[in-house]
Amino acid sequence: MKKGDHLFLIDGSGFIFRAFHALPPLTRKSDGLPVGAVSGFCNMLWKLLTDARDTSVGVTPTHLAVIFDYSAKTFRKDLYDAYKANRSAPPDELIPQFGLIREATRAFNLPCIETEGFEADDIIATYALQAEATGADVTIVSSDKDLMQLVTPNIHMYDSMKDKQIGIPDVIEKWGVSPEKMIDLQAMTGDSVDNVPGIPGVGPKTAAQLLAEYGDLDTLLDRAHEIKQEKRRQAILENADKARLSRELVRLRSDVPLVLGLDDLVLEVQNGPKLIGFLKALQFTTLTRRVAEACNCDASAIEAADVKVEWGTAAHGPDLDAVEPEPVAGGIPDVEGAAVPIPATAKPAGKGFTPAELAKARAEAFAALPFDHSTYVTIRDLATLDKWIGDARATGLVAFDTETTSLDAMQAELVGFSMAIADNDKNPTGLKTRAAYVPIGHRNGVSDLLGGGVADNQIPMRDALPRLKALLEDESVLKVAQDLKYDYLLMKRYGVETKSFDDTMLMSYVLDAGIGAHGMDSLSEKFLGHKPIAYKDIAGSGRANVTFDLVDIDRATHYAAEGADVTLRLWMVLKPRLAAAKLTAVYERLERPLLPVLARMEERGITVDRQILSRLSGELAQGAARLEDEIYTLAGEKFTIGSPKQLGDILFGKMGLAGGNKTKTGQWSTSASVLEELATAGYELPRKIVDWRQLTKLKSTYTDALPGYVHPQTRRVHTSYSLASTTTGRLSSSEPNLQNIPVRTLEGRKIRTAFISVPGHKLISADYSQIELRVLAHVAEIPQLTQAFAEGIDIHAMTASEMFGVPVDGMPTEVRRRAKAINFGIIYGISAFGLANQLSIERSEAGDYIKKYFERFPGIRDYMDSRKQMARDKGYVETIFGRRINYPEIRSSNPSVRAFNERAAINAPIQGSAADIIRRAMIKIEPALAEAGLADRVRMLLQVHDELVFEVEDADVEKAMPIIVSVMENAAMPALEMRVPLKVDARAATNWEEAH
Prior knowledge:
Strand order of the largest sheet: 3-2-1-4-5-6
Distance between the termini: 49 Å
Largest sheet: 6 strands, mixed
Structural class: alpha/beta
CATH architecture of the domain at 346-603: 2-Layer Sandwich
Strand content: 5-15%
CATH superfamily of the domain at 346-603: Ribonuclease H-like superfamily/Ribonuclease H
Radius of gyration: 31 Å
CATH topology of the domain at 346-603: Nucleotidyltransferase, domain 5
């Protein structure tokens, strides 16, 4: 997208409800199917497209997309559980039309976009602001006031029902404030429809008046005591926190992860036959005739499409798969020895099937296979369960999933499990699947107040669990799961060690890192054309939400069995893709074997000292208070330090500091980078603000929060690791995140002192030394770096000596510091501007440093150029172990997007290779310890970037440490021999900081 283009973003959800409520009921004559909303939607969309494509009418879009709400829980529910809780369920006659409307959008040859965890408005905001940044114009087809905060000179709204453009003057005329103040206005007025609390008694007119007087919400709340009207003053003072919460609820997110980029939204020509086929299926005679005339098609020669209808219960209904399976002939021998049928037209003539052809055929076959929930079985007796387990053993393959009471695998209770197997009796080719759910822990909701009663007609856990254990521990049967680590850890708590398994999430991650999400719903829609039942559709949401053990068993069966069925089909599609892409080794050596290692680490957890955390919270509070006083003195007045608006006014308004710039909302930017630049320039107040932010964040994120993560039984903190959340292969942790504790500040290091060993044990911290620089020396083949690492020379001093001609012996600290900044900066594609800020030097001088660096180490420039070229040619780069990191936007026409992808393509092989090395080390360490007889006495607890943390019995520290170091330093072997040696520093102590 470029300047001069025009993007139309249609609020699809708004269209649906306008069409449903504005038009009389309509049913399909042949079977009584309600289609009124679909008809209204299609007519509105056709008129909009007809006008849009008519250059004589007005604005002509170059790009267009229809945006819908996703049915799953959004981030706003995490902020406020009552958000939208009072919304009633949609009318029964509307539910089956949601999926049809999405099919209608695709029939119109338009992108149909929705993103899990976000509302349509957030997606619209993200696209609109990205398009505006390219210089393009944007029209949002909606009249929703929530979207008016986006209106700018380049972003307009259009009310298609009233045929009215909405610009800045229109927003001001209607609401009394400019668009950038709409967030504050809505935060004050609230929204009864969405259950946004706001400030009771404050309506739009009052809010507009207050904003005109005080400027913004933060200033109003700070000065509320000045308001003369007592009732209004009290309402604002008593509901200040609700107003702040409401502001976050109404503020649109502009960072939604987008599956389709702006260039994917180009408005394509109408596919007349496809649209007519859909319209004829719904029996929309009048619109069919209009489309046929406009597209110059003979409607009588076009058959009605075979549109499938599902009477779902989702908030927006299921996304329907309108295509029935094509006829198949024969089958393709696959890697497991079965045969997967393929469309008759897909078989290449005169040759056998390559892995790529097999993968393509499987994908086509399963994308055409419908889901039939009526075939799912509820297993309520042991004889039926034994039969299914026997069938699973006979086929050697079973998809498996658990249903529980919590997302916390360390505290969840098992409620039931589902299975899916290939139905070889009905279809020996393997395309036909069947699935079942086994309830074992459901309770009666009515009895819940009395402690919960076991629901009738389910297998007792004491009978089901031994059979499940025998199946999961049977190495001759391959267990397939989606995000298996959760199920693995849960079953381990029940005494079951899952053996012989595949994980479809990890398969997708290996194949498509950097391309879309890897959750089951996303993969199902992408590869199977099927939107699975949303969890909230069977367990409820908001106040109506119940734990899974209280869900009706029949409803639970539809949800749980479908999950296993989807997983099995995904495995069928993804498994041959690994072979076709030559990525099987990456999956089997780096991903799959790490899963049980991480599960065991999560189960072990680590001890934290609550008293230390309490003391540190007090110290941080005192430090923050001291800084507040100093900040007020330097500013000459008191203000809300956490308010960007007030802080900006102080720094750039009152004090007139140089370097200020305003955001799109008209406020001064007070981001961390802006404050750091001011602090580097010698201004004292910004430095104090940076320090205050750091202390308050440490307090709220760690010292105050960590005690809440202590497990009630184990009395330890159990973080959760994600294998598939970064593009480069680095692990991430959450609940709590232990990888972001700062170690460069004294306060951050103090927090690590609270992580302790239990009596009679020590913590061992084993940390790779400069691993990414060593990887760079290896991949770029830099002789000077390679030699320095081989000889154990200080790499930063060596770099300084090479660049500045200064002897290593007696080198000034400042010279070495500059070389260190360049060394690490080069890895991350640092610019002259960034280096200048970091070293507090002129940009020209920083540019000379970088130029000289590449002159002294020309191999690094060659490496960078080769990685960028590889990304452009193939769309991906690789680590030294063959992991692929995809960059689909590397050829973007947007210079900033393209530059970002190029920098990432340079860094990813380095960071990814380092991540792969530590993965290999983690996989190898436990067997090495077991061989030394230390399996039970040395336990790996944490992985934090380049560091591993162990808990070791005192008597075994000296024996364990060299084993750990040796495994880590030789982790790359035997796959490859590094050109530079890996170095690991290890220490033991009673707390994490002392061991580090």
